[in-house]
Amino acid sequence: MVHPLRTHIETVCKLTDEEFEYVLSHFTPLKLKKHRLLVREGDWVKHEYFVLKGCLRSYITDADTGKEFTYQFAAENWWISEREAFLKQTAATTAIECVEDCELLGLSFENREKLGREMWKYEHYVAVKTSLGYVALQKRLQLMIMGSTKERFENFVNQYPDLYSRVPKAFIASFLGVSRETISRLYRK
Amino acid sequence: MVHPLRTHIETVCKLTDEEFEYVLSHFTPLKLKKHRLLVREGDWVKHEYFVLKGCLRSYITDADTGKEFTYQFAAENWWISEREAFLKQTAATTAIECVEDCELLGLSFENREKLGREMWKYEHYVAVKTSLGYVALQKRLQLMIMGSTKERFENFVNQYPDLYSRVPKAFIASFLGVSRETISRLYRK
């Protein structure tokens, strides 16, 4: 079986066996149980992670009310990190929690830079995938600005049918910026 | 005076004079008057643009109501394009309008790919700036999900004090997902 990370990179550019082995040698495997935190608020974030198995959510906690807002999910073949803290090497202002038992591959900031410097293909992969991620986020923002609650919900279910059944509805509600009750009502329809 | 595009690239990595001249030779200058459309819905988008002078907005039109929602601004030293159409080479689903008279530098998709292939520094610049753009967009989304109208407004004014005075308030209102009246009320405070 082709390694999922290789499959993901090869959607952008093909690698030789040697190149992929070299890329992979920079990653560190990590297993975490459901409910464990991958990143805590205030952490220095030294890694970004490729998800091999399981599902995680990034969330931000309102300092006044203590209420949590989920702003990102990541399941198999997605990348996740507290990106601002990772890229700017500052303390995390949001947290990442395992929604299921997870198997991850961690890449340190130094190794990411090293791979990008040494292998044009890796830098290109990062540039292309980040650009596509930017577009996806922009579309989500467009839906937040102009879409109805119903449209946002339907879009989520169509885009991530698998995630919808795996993730507690309260997380999806805050992800979509709608109430828990609205989610239940829309789901029944 | 150092060319603004060079200054922008050099926040990521230094270029020699020859390297910058080579980069610049791939761009095409473009001047557009206020209210002119840079991209129309349905267009094939062949370029991305670096803003030398002026201000533009990207907006999406609600098919049912005809109402416009501004989802992005770009002023001096920002990049703008209908990114989805540009990257995926599909037809534009949103439009870009000049809010002021504009001077732009256009880079075609082919030239962007060529520069990235030939110059590791350019590919690295794209990767780093896109990652930072992703983070900025993520922070904006977090504010849309959890921030109050007041917080969103204050954040915008603090982040883009210059833009606030240059751009019609109706565009800012839809950008923040709040009503025109709310903007006026918050501004008076």
Automatic annotation (TrEMBL), chains A, B:
InterPro entries per record: cNMP-bd_dom (IPR000595), cNMP-bd_dom_sf (IPR018490), RmlC-like_jellyroll (IPR014710)
PROSITE patterns assigned: CNMP_BINDING_3
UniProt keyword terms in alphabetical order: Kinase, Transferase
Example GO molecular function: kinase activity
Domain Cyclic nucleotide-binding: 11-115
Record-annotated membrane-spanning stretches: none
One Pfam family linked to the record: cNMP_binding
Keyword Nucleus: no
Top-level taxonomic group: Bacteria
Full protein name: cAMP-binding domain of CRP or a regulatory subunit of cAMP-dependent protein kinases
Species this chain originates from: Chitinophaga ginsengisegetis
